[in-house]
Amino acid sequence: MPEWLEYVHDRYAYWAIVFLMIIGLYGMLFKNNLHKKVVGMIIFQNSMILLFVTAAFKWDATVPVRDAEIDVNVVGNYLNPLPHTLMLTAIVVGVAIVGVAFALLIKIYDNYGTIEEDELLEKLQSPAPEDDDSEDSFPSKGGSV
Amino acid sequence: MNHIPVLIPMVLLLGSMFAVFGRRSQENYLPFLIALGAMGLSAVFSIIGMVYSVTEGPIHYHLGGWQPPMGIELILDPLAAFFCLMITLVATVVLLHGEERVRIEVGDRIPAYYSSALMLVGGLTGIVLTGDLFNLYVFLEISSLASYALLATGRKPAAVSAFRYLILGTIGASLYLLGIGFLFMEVGSLNMSELAVMIPEVPVTAGLSAAAVLIVIGIGLKMALFPLHGWLPDAYTFASSPATTLVAPIGTKVAAYVLIRVFLFLFALDFMKEGIHLTTIVGWMGAAGVIWGSVMAITQRDMKRMLAYSSVAQVGYIALGIGLANPLGLIGAVLHAFAHCFMKACLFMVQTNFLHRLGHYDISRLDHRTRVAMPWTCAALVVASLSMIGLPPTIGFFSKWYLVLGCVEEGAWIFLAVLLLSTLLNAVYFFRVLEKVYLRSDGKAYDEGDIEADQATPSCEVGARMLYPTLVLAGSLLVLGFANAWIVAHFLQPMFPVW
Question: What pTM was computed for the model?
Answer without folding.
Answer: 0.89
